[in-house]
Structures are given as structure tokens and as C-alpha cells.
Amino acid sequence: MILDEPDSHFIFVFHPKIFEGKKYTVYEGRELTNGEVLKYWGKWIFFGDKSQLDEWARKLDRYVEDETIPCIKYDRIPPANLGLTELVMMVYCDKRKSEEIWQILQQHGVKIKAWVSEWETMEMWKPGGGAFGTVD
Amino acid sequence: MSISFIVPGSLKDWFGGSEQVICEGKTIGECIDDLDSKFPGFRHRVFDEKGEINSSVMIFIDGQNLRLLNGLATSVKDGDEVSIIPFAAGG
């Protein structure tokens, strides 16, 4: 289901089970431990304008509903505070499922192939990381 | 060997208005040199003077982050696709 709340910067595509307290960080139907999330969790990142990402969200929703794709998140407006002029869409999954999900994305016209792990994201945004800058 | 470089629309000016270009090379470094000859200044957009990846971008070969591979010396093979995205988008 597409969760589009106007006050939120992000639009999400979640399985309804999220509202029953289930986690989306799963592999083969099993919830990952925190250690497994750091080891395996990540996302495919790509770009587009609002209409393009809305269309992808609608087309990919069925893969979220059948639990092939665990979660999708995308910007409502370009994150100008990060210096970006396009909207970013992130399709989250376990690394061990990432190629299977990439095939789906490619079938729907995604060309940028960029996998960023949760661990890399944490490294980027911690003090001293590339995205956060250096703390003296 | 033909290698494809792909960028999002916001970076297409780097390639004269195209989001995808083809280049030649056996390593990322050779590909960058080839692209720099076609699109002057490209090398400095993606690598600094020390040969490190520019902090403003992330580069991926077949989805794998080049920072986790072998930098400019990373081998590429015919048909590989290299994606470049703004660093800030990776969070």
C-alpha cells in the first residue's frame, strides 16, 4: 500500500502488516536481527521527477503486497537541503535478494544501478563521514 | 571494450545532455580518461588530484560501490554499466 501523507516529506510503499507491528527488515519471511541488518540490509537508489516516481510506486506496489520487495521510500519534493534537484527513490531489501529485486526494477525501466548498504549509510552520516563533515 | 556510464538527469550536463554514454577502457581509470577526452573536465568531477573518488559523488560498477572496490585500477569488462550518483543521495 502507498502511504502518502501530505505532511510527510517521504512517501512510503509498505505492506499493511507494518501496521500490525511487523518489521519490514525481513529475509525469507524471517525478521533480521540488528547484526543481520548491518550485514545484509540496504537499498537500490535511483532518481526521477514526481510523476515518474509516483508511477514506479504504483507499479511496484504489487511486489510489496506479495512481499517480494520489503519497503520503498521516495521524496515528495527534491531534497534541496542536500543539494539535490531530483527526487530520490529507495527500494529496500536484503543484499541476498538484491539482484532478484534489481531485475524487477530494470524491467520497469530503472537504469541507475546503485546499491548502498545500511552499514555504508551509517558510515556516511556519522561525524567525520562523507555526508556529515568533520567534527573538530 | 565498451563500458556504459549512466547518470541521473541532474548530472546529464556532464555528458553534453545525455544520461548514458559509452566509453572504452579496461579499468575505471582508462574509462575516466576516455570520457575526459570527450567531455573535458569530467575526470575532476569524479576524482580528486590524489586519485580518490570526489566526495560529492558515488560511483557504482554493476551496482557495487567503487569505494569498496579498487578505485581507478578496478577492472571493467565489456558491457559493464557504471552508475554515478550525487553522494548526498546515498543516505
Which descriptors apply to this entry?
heterodimer, A: 136 residues, alpha+beta, six-stranded antiparallel β-sheet, two-stranded antiparallel ribbon, 30% helix, globular, B: 91 residues, Ubiquitin-like (UB roll), five-stranded mixed β-sheet
Structure commentary:
The complex is a heterodimer of chains A (136) and B (91). Chain A is an alpha+beta fold and 136 residues long. Chain A has one domain (2-116). Chain A has helices spanning 34-40, 50-65, 98-107, 118-125; strands spanning 2-3, 10-13, 26-27, 30-31, 41-48, 71-75, 87-94, 115-117. Chain A has a six-stranded antiparallel β-sheet. Chain B is α+β, with helices and mostly antiparallel strands. Chain B is 18% helix and 25% strand. Chain B is globular, with a radius of gyration of 12 Å. Chain B has helices spanning 28-38, 42-46, and strands at 2-6, 20-24, 57-61, 64-65, 81-86. Chain B has a single domain (2-90), classed as Roll (Ubiquitin-like (UB roll)), CATH 3.10.20. The chains are: A alpha+beta (136), B alpha+beta (91).
In brief:
Chain A is α+β, with helices and mostly antiparallel strands and 136 residues long. Chain A has helices spanning 34-40, 50-65, 98-107, 118-125; strands at residues 2-3, 10-13, 26-27, 30-31, 41-48, 71-75, 87-94, 115-117.
Q: What is the typical, i.e. mean, pLDDT of chain A?
A: 91
In total, the number of domains of chain A comes to 1
Overall number of structural domains of chain B? 1
Question: If strands are numbered along the chain, what order do they take across the biggest sheet of chain A?
Answer: 1-2-6-7-5-8
**What structural class results from the helix and strand content of chain B?**
alpha+beta
In total, how many beta strands of chain A?
8
Overall outline of chain B:
globular
**First and last CA, distance of chain B:** 33 Å
Strand content of chain B: 25-35%
Give me the number of helical elements of chain B.
Answer: 2
Largest sheet of chain A: 6 strands, antiparallel
Question: What is the CATH superfamily of chain B?
Answer: Beta-grasp domain
**What coarse outline of chain A follows from CA principal-axis ratios?**
globular
Low-confidence stretches of chain A: none
Query: What is the fold-level CATH name, i.e. the topology of chain B?
Result: Ubiquitin-like (UB roll)
Question: Which percent bin holds the helix content of chain B?
Answer: 10-25%
CATH architecture of chain B: Roll
